[in-house]
Amino acid sequence: MSAKPRIERAALEVFAAHGVDGATTKLIAARAEVSEGAIYRHWKSKDELAIGLFMAAHKRLSDLIEAEAGAVHGVEAKAAALVKAYCTAADEDWTLFSFHLLQLHHFLPYYQDDGRDPVTLVETIIKYAMLKMELPPGDPRVVAAMAIGVITQTAQNRAYGRLGEDALSAHAPLMTAAVQAVLMAR
Amino acid sequence: MSAKPRIERAALEVFAAHGVDGATTKLIAARAEVSEGAIYRHWKSKDELAIGLFMAAHKRLSDLIEAEAGAVHGVEAKAAALVKAYCTAADEDWTLFSFHLLQLHHFLPYYQDDGRDPVTLVETIIKYAMLKMELPPGDPRVVAAMAIGVITQTAQNRAYGRLGEDALSAHAPLMTAAVQAVLMAR
DNA sequence: AGTCGGTATGTGAGCATTTACTTGCAAGCG
DNA sequence: CGCTTGCAAGTAAATGCTCACATACCGACT
User: Fold this and answer.
1) How confident is the model at residue A113 (pLDDT cuts 50, 70, 90)?
2) For residue range A126-135, what is the model confidence (pLDDT) as tens digits?
3) Residues 93-132, chain A, CB closer than 7 Å to nucleic strand C
4) 3-class state of residue A21 by DSSP
């Protein structure tokens, strides 16, 4: 079988476990059962490999949020959609999702600011809902952060092994109620 | 002036910016205006330096939570106390706080499981409140994660430069209301 | 007060090792 | 054949850390 997908999987696992800087090309190659040189047939550098994987996760999550939230109306439903988007991303590829979650700050410099990242998307939804008086007023940046925090911290604790092996979606009802509560609270 | 505190400050800044693995002893020494060797007069290794700083932040935050939450009664007040504890830690030394926040997962292996970390403390408070029927039932591990997420994600976004330069405590009222809402939501 | 000696602190050149990455070669394949 | 994919061995640079040496500090003893 071709080495490229094996390398991607291996890299994902190693990056998630050790961080981008802590991961070595040797480890990735060994885990993929491939020589180190094989990596460089497909990527220019270790960082390019890492960025590619990260951006894939980033795009997937953003797309899911846009799709789910765009398909429904009203803040309550949009909150549920947000939780659903995160849970779908987490359930369909937990390694990719947790890599994105835990290594986010490593890639901040590479962020293109096109407003299509999860935080900005949620911020926009909240701003709009405030305009329509569906939400009480308040700094949308903070409200967005708090709402997302409900989900991401739960996911983080799962990644840390504090929540057992259940899928993230197992906690979706609880998270949905909490996100809705955060949005309305003031 | 003695080099040790200068090294601690420099290391904190470099670790927070580049991560533990991404930080080099050369960079730390340069920033502290000290030779590399000086570091090793006070610490056995780069990792020991990092762990020491991390544990200081960890202990400070845990102590604040225990003190603030222990001084009041009722979940509402304890929620406010939790927010206050985080804000105090963040305001009194933002560099130390953000280092702890962003590099947490690097130090998970070193965690001693004495129940005195922030998450477990909050979990215990929640369990007790549920027993006393002050809170609706639900997985305390998840509820604790969600409540803490409200605060930590806000802090993270501040660290990412998305919230301006205001102190974290500037958002305390909003966060307090949100945490209380999360606790009661179901 | 002065000076001796031991210890703590800081230097900077340098060490062994590890790191990301390259290169020459060969096999697979349409 | 021509092109892609993979390997094994290598390279130059960087990294964490050490060590011989220099200086500052500080109490004890005359």
Assistant:
1) confident
2) 999 999 999 9
3) none
4) coil
Quick one: DSSP state of residue B66?
H
Nucleotide nearest to A41 (CA to C1'): D5
Task: Give the distance from residue B85's alpha carbon to the nearest chain A alpha carbon, in angstroms.
Answer: 17
Residues 6+ apart with CB under 8 A from A113: none
Q: How many CB atoms lie within 10 A of CB B167?
A: 12
CATH topology for the B1-43 domain: Arc Repressor Mutant, subunit A (1.10.10)
**Residue B44 near chain A (CB below 8 Å):** no
**A124: helix, strand or coil:** helix
Question: Is strand D in 7 Å reach of the CB of B18?
Answer: no
Residue at token pair 């190659």:
A29
Interatomic CA distance for residues B86 and B172, integer angstroms: 9
* Rounded Cα gap, residues B6 and B8, in angstroms: 5
Choose the closest CB to B145 out of A141, A143, A157.
A157
Say if CB B117 and CB B152 are below 8 A apart.
Answer: no
Strand D–CB B40 distance below 7 A: yes
Residue B113: pLDDT band (50, 70, 90) is: confident
CB of B26 nearer than 7 A to strand C = no
Sequence ranges of the domains in chain A? 1-43, 55-184
CB contact under 8 A, B175 and A142: yes
Are the folds of A1-43 and A55-184 the same? no
pLDDT, mean of residues A96-112: 92
Tens-place pLDDT, residues A35-64 = 999 999 999 999 999 999 999 999 999 999
- State both tokens at A45: 């550098």
CATH superfamily of B55-184: Tetracycline Repressor, domain 2 (1.10.357.10)
The per-residue pLDDT for A185 is 96
Average pLDDT over residues A86-113: 94
Q: Which of A108, A146, A180 has its CB closest to that of B175? A: A146
